[in-house]
Structures
1.
Amino acid sequence: QDTINKIAAGEVVERPSSVVKELVENSIDAGATAVSVTIAGGGTTQIRVTDNGTGFDRDDLDIAFQKNTTSKIRCAEDLMSVQSLGFRGEALSSIAAVSKLELITKTKNELIGTRYIIHGGVKQEEQEVGCPDGTTFVVNDLFYNTPVRRKFLKSAMTEAGYVNDVMERIALSNPNVSIKFTNNGKLIINTSGNGKLSDVVYGIYGREIAAELCEVNKTAGELSIHGLIAKPVIARGNRNFENYFLNGRYIKNPLISKAIEEAYRGYMMQNKYPFTALMLHIPNEMFDVNVHPAKLEVRFVEENKIFKAVYHAIKNALLGNDLVAESSADEKPLERENVPVSNTPIKKGLFEIFRGGKADKAVEENIKEENNLRKLQN
Ligand code: ADP
Ligand code: MG
């Protein structure tokens, strides 16, 4: 049984960033309006996730850590209408199986909270504690009992970078949730949760991109696409800044990427890719919802319809805007009320280079590496 549990856990929890993704998605499913994530040692030493969501009922705790237990669906039919980010009930049992986990939680109906400790899937302790409404997970010593898995992890800095990617996507897809990410004591992401996507983009990517955004807003039947894209002047050498979310879930999909790039064709040099933060809302029956939540793939029923909708949404947004680059970003002051506090928007540098037109791939990679280092240095 112990071996089976560890194998199962490996499918959900590949690295620290997978733990962070699962826990923060749970927080959002629990209705949190603020989620704070702190990691140390790239997340292998410790991951701490605190939310102000519903909390766990004391009676549910033992059940929640069992395999395939979820409060989000009751029967197979519910799969067609599930709105939550999770529903397979795999995360908590998996994370608990390969770490030393501590949980502190309280619902608003209870006067006193609960502290629950579980190591390698085995419950150690449960006691009453005073604590605020909501939930805190502390995951210590990830993979302490699966040394082979641990060996496959990259350096703490690289793993922290993956966690950062996850946090950025979560912040982009949840502008109405205040998201905080702290690595080794340094605040990396801090969004206000004021619901403005442009503020999140400013906080994460900086002024350079925030000053060149176009709004996307399209409804085609039961399909809707909204969000922000950057004008073609913001271009980069790979697809890393093509962000799109399907019903709140970050996905990667060749069809959608192709639709985006086709819409930009003619505005952008070859082998350059745009910045997008697109929210697609599509009824569940139009794609396969039963894909693995830890994977980013998705299958659409009517690919052509999706392609056209994305293509036209972007094309229209681009056509409706003056695409000539400003000679200097400073001439166009940003609306900056309530801009989330973030540390130096390090990604900015990348785009200034393209503006000058002299970036090659090596330069870009160098800058990226340098920025990552700077960002993650203690
Ligand atoms: P799933 O998210 O697929 O339901 P999980 O294993 O991630 O499965 O979580 C199991 C259950 O634990 C959830 O269905 C939910 O009821 C509860 N839960 C998990 N995280 C939280 C949280 N942060 N706040 C409140 N309840 C939570
Ligand atoms: Mg979950």
2.
Amino acid sequence: METLLSIKELGVVYHTERSKVYAVNGLSLEIAKGESLGLVGETGAGKTTTALAALNLLPKSAERSGDILYEGKSVFHMRERELLKLRGGEIAMIFQNPLTALNPVFTVGEQIEMVLRAHGGGKNRQIRERAGELLETVGIPRYRLKDYPGQFSGGMRQRVGIAAALASSPKLLIADEPTTALDVTIQAQILELMKELQLRSNMSLLMITHNLGIISELCQHVAVMYAGTIIEYGEVAKVFKNPLHPYTIGLLGALPKLDGPRSRLTAIPGRIADPQNLPPGCPFHPRCERCQEECQSKTPGLAAIEEKHFVSCHLYTKEVRP
Ligand code: SF4
């Protein structure tokens, strides 16, 4: 499959008054056209920072290294005009709280129309017609175009957020915990809708979540993040059936079946690595029951264990060494 977004050895350090925060540490990842990839990890693992970096939206104070290529072109070296086309155009993003993306003083129709005008234009009547179609696509009758975001429930607002995101016909949709704030029934409806829309439009999807059930329902591939880097990556079926990294095994707990009930992350002893004070060697070693001497000083690299299944752990690199 053709690569759409390629993240190469991304590093992001935030400078605070007193210290440095190592949010992303040498992360490499690719998303192909039409692919759905889940980025999973605990809060503070660097998931959202990675998404913001893909849109070149990191604060100016952030120190970054590595590169991110969108259709072969460096996002970090794009001009302002190219970035405007990229953000909300080629790449759209939906957030946990749609109210942060929707302006309360404009009707939802006006907001969807603004996106349509910015990315393609057309006559007023055509734009209004398209806005109505988009609202209907997400299951909301078009007469509600004249309503304000505050007149919608949480689940309906997220649907509006998805309609607005789709207005630019993005090639990549980044969804950052889009259903966390919603109740379970509405969550299921929104996920079903996203799955259907992604398949229908062949859009790529980067789903950022801490919920493994969402990944198993929606994604072809999964990348497990810990302390700002990928520690396991592969096809969802392979990783869920045969998790290798002790952290992934901990996340999956009792190894739920793909068709089993949706599960949230199980608790893993200890705390997530402090990004202001990362441990040497494997960043997971202070929490790892299988930690060995070399884990405390040597950082493991990501190695292929089977086809389309990679892990960053000394246990496996040892096993595969000749
Ligand atoms: Fe555990 Fe060592 Fe593997 Fe890290 S490298 S996950 S400490 S066994």
